[in-house]
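pasting for the record
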Amino acid sequence: MSRTKQSGVTSGSALRGDSPCRSCLGRNTYEDRVISYPFSLRDRVIIFENVPAFVCNQCGEILLAGETAKLIDDLARGDSPPTRTTEVPVYDLGR
C-alpha cells in the first residue's frame, strides 16, 4: 500500500486495525468496510460501489489499498462502460 492522497482518499501503508487515524489521531478506530465512493474528475461525478476500504469510526477518514485507489483512478480516466448510470442533483449555493 502506498501513502498517497487521491481525490480526498488516502491510501495507507501497512495499516492495521489498531493503527491511529491519520486525521483525528484516534486509536483503534479503523474498520474494514465496503463503501460507495463518489469521485470527482473535472466536471464529472462518478460513483464507485462496493469499494473495500478502511474507515475511521471516529471521524470517517477513508483509507484505500493502493491497488484499489489505482483501480478507481484507472476506471475514472478510462473508457470502460459503467455498470449503470444515474442522474445527480446539483445545488448552487452561490445563488
